[in-house]
């Protein structure tokens, strides 16, 4: 499928989705969000896709924010619908995918860009990356999950400071906060993410999807994450992956998932 604002390439089980609006610093507009949803949905449906990597084109930006020109004149109800639809279509969709999603942050990740990175299952950044939620400087707040996911990742106090100052942090500060898992040079970014993807791909895709669901459950209101873990753990026992994994272990060979 051809896209206007993104690129999607699959190689050996790894689907690299690249936001490709370099003249706009890869800012998210409505069309880009819809295209990203389509690409992620296709990845989730494709059994041969084992990992998704989301990144931005060029060296300046992962995603420098939302396209403000699209909503500068919105009413209250239009603003609420913008956030609701965006969360459902892209940000929550990514977070809930059973296929692992890694964000390769190659530059500015601001506003909706940081929110997209936080929706991924984890993040790796180049040493040139800068991250922040500057929405309050525009008289609005993060609307794509930023007020919820940032405190989960860095703690309430740091999240409050980042949101209220509307400032940016560098990659090493993000690493110390736990916002990203690794920081490397720009040249090493995709090779490292692919290396991590390779390690993940050695393991059971069914079990990984179950683990994602169990971990996510612990952050949902009204859901007992321990109960979800028990159900997912039990569910594994009836699968071919469990049979292969345990058989391979007992036969002292590598499992073939």
Mind explaining what this structure looks like?
This protein is of the alpha/beta class and 257 residues long. The protein has two domains: 6-201, 2-enoyl-CoA Hydratase, Chain A, domain 1 (Alpha-Beta Complex); 205-250. 47% of the residues lie in helices and 17% in strands. It has helices at 30-45, 76-95, 112-119, 146-154, 156-165, 171-177, 186-201, 205-217, 225-236, 240-250; strands at 6-11, 14-19, 51-56, 61-63, 101-105, 108-110, 122-126, 130-132, 168-170, 182-184. Helix 1 runs parallel beside helix 2, helix 2 (76-95) runs parallel beside helix 3 (112-119) and helix 8 (205-217) packs antiparallel against helix 9. The relative contact order is 0.11.
| Total number of distinct structural domains | 2
Q: What is the overall shape?
A: globular
CATH class category label of the largest domain: Alpha Beta
Overall helicity: 40-55%
Q: Give the low-confidence spans.
A: none
Q: What is the name of the CATH topology of the largest domain?
A: 2-enoyl-CoA Hydratase, Chain A, domain 1
- Secondary-structure element sequence? EEHEEHEEHEEHHEHEHHHH
Strand order of the largest sheet: 1-2-3-5-7-10
Largest sheet: 6 strands, mixed
What is Rg? 19 Å
Q: What is the distance, rounded to the nearest whole angstrom, between the alpha carbons of the first and last residues? A: 28 Å
- CATH homologous superfamily title of the largest domain: 2-enoyl-CoA Hydratase, Chain A, domain 1
What is the overall pLDDT average? 96
Number of strands: 10
Category by helix and strand content: alpha/beta
Number of helices: 10
Q: Per DSSP, what share of the residues sits in E-state strands of 2 or more residues? A: 15-25%
Which CATH architecture of the largest domain would you pick? Alpha-Beta Complex
């Amino acid at each position: 499928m051809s896209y206007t604002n993104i690129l999607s390439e699959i190689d050996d089980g790894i689907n690299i989705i690249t936001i490709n609006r370099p003249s706009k610093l890869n800012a998210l507009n409505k069309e880009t969000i819809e295209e990203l949803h389509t690409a992620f949905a296709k990845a989730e449906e494709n059994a041969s896709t084992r990992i998704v990597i989301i990144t931005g084109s060029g060296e300046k930006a992962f995603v420098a924010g939302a396209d403000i020109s699209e909503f500068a004149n919105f009413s209250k109800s239009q603003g609420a619908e913008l956030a609701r639809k965006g969360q459902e279509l892209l940000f929550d969709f990514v977070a809930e995918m059973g296929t692992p999603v890694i964000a390769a942050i190659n530059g500015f990740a601001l506003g909706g860009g940081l929110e997209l990175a936080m929706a991924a299952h984890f993040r790796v950044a180049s040493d040139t990356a800068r991250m922040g939620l500057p929405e309050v400087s525009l008289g609005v707040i993060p609307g794509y999950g930023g007020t919820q996911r940032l405190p989960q990742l860095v703690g309430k106090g740091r999240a409050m400071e980042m949101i209220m100052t509307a400032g940016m942090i560098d990659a090493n500060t993000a690493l110390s906060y736990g916002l990203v898992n690794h920081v490397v040079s720009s040249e090493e970014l995709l090779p490292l993410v692919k290396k991590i993807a390779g390690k993940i791909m050695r393991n059971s895709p069914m079990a990984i999807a179950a683990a994602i669901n169990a971990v996510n459950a612990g952050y949902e209101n009204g859901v007992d994450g321990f109960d979800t873990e028990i159900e997912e753990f039990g569910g594994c026992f009836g699968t071919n992956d469990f049979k292969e994994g345990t058989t391979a272990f007992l036969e002292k060979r590598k499992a073939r998932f």
